């Protein structure tokens, strides 16, 4: 797994022609942190080898809260695909 703020994960913004569907949200801040988490599980010996690398300590991304109404909406539709919702 790579750090969610790793600059390697930067994608170019794409615009959608339908203006009502454009979100124009600000991108998260990216860093050259080389953050990576490697997990190797050995079922036979019931052990896990965990390696964490992070070259740069940086701020965490801003947390975005989801209100209870949205949580309930999602919870009521767990059997549906995103396209069906």
UniProtKB/TrEMBL annotation:
<protein>
    <submittedName>
        <fullName>Uncharacterized protein</fullName>
    </submittedName>
</protein>
């Amino acid at each position: 797994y790579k750090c969610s703020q790793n600059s390697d994960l930067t994608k170019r913004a794409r615009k959608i022609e339908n203006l009502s569907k454009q979100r124009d949200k600000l991108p998260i801040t990216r860093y050259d942190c080389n953050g990576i988490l490697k997990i190797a599980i050995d079922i036979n010996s019931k052990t896990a080898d965990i390696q964490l690398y992070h070259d740069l300590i940086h701020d965490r991304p801003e947390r975005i809260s989801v209100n209870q109404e949205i949580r309930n909406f999602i919870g009521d539709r767990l059997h549906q695909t995103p396209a069906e919702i």
